[in-house]
Amino acid sequence: DGRDLVLIANDVTFQAGSFGVREDQLFQKASEYARIRGIPRIYVSCNSGARVGLVEELKPLYKIHWIDPKDPNKGFQYLYLDKADYEKLEPNTVEAHMVTECGEDRYVIDAIVGENQKSTKGGIGVENLQGS
Fold first, then answer.
1. Is the dihedral of CA 56, 61, 64, 70 positive or negative?
2. Bridge-partner residues for 114, per DSSP?
3. What does residue 68 show for φ and ψ, rounded to 5 degrees?
4. Could you identify which of 12, 16, 53, 114 might form a hypothetical disulfide with 46, taking C-beta atoms 3.0 to 4.6 angstroms apart as the criterion?
5. C-alpha angle 55-20-129 in degrees, rounded to nearest 5
6. What predicted TM-score, i.e. pTM, was given to this entire model?
């Protein structure tokens, strides 16, 4: 005796309870399952929000254009790739525009797409919560 229901939960003790792409897909499927069957869906949330991944292959390549290189506390103007590193990347890894600064061609990162990279198989996290 009792009632069927769907229970979805985040556990703050596992990756701070954050949502990644796989969790989002599970949430969407479980929600759809409950709607189709007309049963309650209960969501217990103990999380830190969406988990935004990184394109691991880019981490060693990023460079920073500091506002004041002697005082990083003042912040930065942009993140960029030098020409050699930018040209090594697969298409659709980043969206960038070129600037010339200090006699160097720099590719200012406008967006990280992360396609065709090993570390982004299954998404980098910005897809999170699309079906919630």
1. positive
2. none
3. -135, 105
4. 12
5. 115
6. 0.55
The C-alpha atoms of residue 77 and residue 79 are separated, in whole angstroms, by 7
How many angstroms separate the CA atoms of 132 and 117, rounded? 27
Q: Tens digit of pLDDT for each residue in 77-97?
A: 999 999 999 999 888 888 899
Sign of CA dihedral 115, 117, 124, 109: negative
66 CB-near residues (< 8 Å, 6+ apart): 72, 74, 75, 76, 77
| pLDDT tens digit sequence for 102-115 | 899 999 998 877 66
Tokens of 87: 């040209």
Q: How many CB atoms lie within 10 A of CB 112?
A: 20
The tokens describing 123, both together, are 């998404």
